[in-house]
Amino acid sequence: MAEVLVDKNPVIKTVINKIDNVGSESQFRTFQYEVLAGPEDLNVRVSENNCTFEFDYSKVYWNSKLETEHRRLVEQFIPGEVVCDVMAGIGPFAIPAGKLGVFVWANDMNPESYKCLKQAVQKNKVRYHFKLSILCCPFFLTRCRSGTSCAHSVKMAVHLF
């Protein structure tokens, strides 16, 4: 079946099977997998909410099924607000919020997610709306609550999927 998916869908290059539960083996919600068809290349480019993300699917958490939830949350933000994204990952909330004119404090502990988030900030041209960090959540939340870098009110956008 995996070979048929690759043969019949020109945009699909690799088909994998997750062989453990997401997050059970890694604090960064990555997973073990086996390649069923195609090359073992999990570098992907995804477009969501008029933003582009590039990442290695084997090293970061991504779930395309959450696109509607990402959009729903971002639509609640008001330009000029400050949003603290505690576990930003590669930025599915943060990047669209930045495009909207929201100031984003984005954090992720996964070094690979942080790297991809920095690249997404540049690629999507929202760097003037961002402050990035790679901290554990309690330290990041303390920093957000103190509001030392911004005079705006802080609206917390905590997503724990």
Quick overview of this protein structure:
This protein has five helices and eight strands.
Task: Explain what the structure shows.
The protein is an alpha/beta fold. It folds into two domains: 31 residues, no CATH class; 91 residues, 3-Layer(aba) Sandwich (Rossmann fold). It is built from five helices and eight strands; from the N terminus they run H-E-E-E-E-H-E-H-E-H-E-H-E. It has a four-stranded parallel beta sheet, sandwiched between helices. The radius of gyration is 17 Å and the shape is globular. The two termini are 30 Å apart.
Give the overall shape, derived from the CA principal axes.
globular
Total domain units = 2
Count of runs of 4 or more consecutive helical residues: 5
Q: Which percent range fits the helix content?
A: 25-40%
What is the CATH class name of the largest domain? Alpha Beta
Order of helices and strands: HEEEEHEHEHEHE
Task: Tell me the strand percentage band.
Answer: 15-25%
So, CATH architecture of the largest domain? 3-Layer(aba) Sandwich
The low-confidence parts are 148-154, 156-161
The mean pLDDT is 81
CATH superfamily of the largest domain: Vaccinia Virus protein VP39
Output the radius of gyration. 17 Å
Give the biggest beta sheet: 4 strands, parallel
| CATH-assigned fold name of the largest domain | Rossmann fold
**Strands of the largest sheet, in order across it?**
7-6-5-8
For the secondary structure, the number of strands is 8
